Amino acid sequence: MPASGATFPAAVALQNLLADRYSSPVTVVDRELLEPWAVARVRLRGTAAPRSVVVKWIRTGRDRNRTAAWRLRTELAALQFLSEDVEVGLTPRVIAADTAARFLVLEDLAPRIALDHLLRRDGAAAHGEGLAAFARARGELSAATAGRAPLYYARRARLGPVDPAADTAGRLAPLRDTAIRHAAELGAPLDGRAEHELTAVLDELHHPGPFLALSNGDSEANNILLHPCRPADARLIDFEYAGYTHALTDAVCLYVPGPAWMTVGEPTATGLADHYRHALVRGIPEAEDDRRYGHGLAAACTSWALIRLQRFAVLDTRSPGDPSRPQLIATLEAAARTAAIHNALPHLTTWTHRIAALLRRRWPDADQDFTDPARFPPYRARS
Q1: What is the count of structural domains for the chain?
Q2: Domain range spanning residue 84?
């Protein structure tokens, strides 16, 4: 049964919506909750309806982050934009929607499975094709949507208020200020040339120019589904936080660990960097400029590392051996390494390494060699 606060839409409302969609009776046979999300696979009976669909709804309860109705409107607008306006073929189709009742009915993408599940189960070495598909899909999404922001926002505005500037800045952007305060408390205040480079980072991210493209807002491996027999047949999901932002923020997941991982490997050596960039260039030719591309990528990775650093105060209270501590250090060092490889942001890179070194001394249990593939293979789960 659904958990408290994750109430499944009334079967009669779903049946009536689908009956109207297919102009014939539809019966809900059963449902399979895909916990912990407010998502279910629903099996149907009807002459015109598919055998199954995926229903996604907005929870009820006091958690404003999980119950905000704008998330459903954003997902609806993004998926319709991608399938009807852009026709990119990377996402599930919207079958029906009831924004008043706060649920969507989506194409069932089974038997596709989330890449992060495969990586956790088998390790990265077993899923090179899937990782390549992941990298290409991120680049393809940006390439297909670059230059089309007005069309998306016209569609999104019809469903309710939206702030394009907030989308570009990113919903987590305010967390950077907290991170800078934490760095100062650790003994690494931001000043001088590093501060000047951070200003350049923010200018790059807030004014992407030709790199402005649609992102789903969470470009991690749990939000791409792969077909078990055709790994290249990938679909991106979860567009609740979609919006136009700097395209290279969607490449960060290839270089810097996200919340789930200790390490992600070296994308240049594995070829994932090329898969992503070649796909991106087809819609954003400016990505061929090494200097411009490197600066943008370094800016996006550094910004993400700072966003993760805002967790310092919480992690500092945890017991030695907690995996979130080494993960934070690995994140900072991966961002600095990416900037150094692309000859970008040298003073911010030095500052980031200094923060990581201070954390290593503060947390001796987290003082480990994250470049050792024997101990930290690509996509090693945090826990």
Answers
A1: 2
A2: 11-107
Residue 114 included in any domain: no
CB neighbour class for 268 (10 Å; exposed up to 12, middle 13-18, buried from 19): middle
CA 1 from chain center: how many Å? 29
Task: Convert the pLDDT of each residue in 71-89 to its tens digit.
Answer: 999 999 999 999 999 999 9
CA dihedral 381, 264, 239, 60 (to 10 degrees): 20
CATH number of the domain at 193, please: 3.90.1200
Q: Would you say residue 2 lies in a domain?
A: no
- The pLDDT tens digits of the residues spanning 101-147 come to 999 999 999 999 999 999 999 999 999 999 999 999 999 999 999 99
Would you call 173 helix, strand, or coil by DSSP?
coil
Total residues found in the chain within this entry: 383
Look at residue 165 and tell me whether its pLDDT is greater than 90: yes
Q: What is the CATH number of the domain that holds 87?
A: 3.30.200
Q: Order of strands, edge to edge, in the sheet holding 39-45?
A: 27-33, 39-45, 52-57, 103-107, 94-98
Closest to 348 (Cα-Cα) out of 232, 247, 204:
204
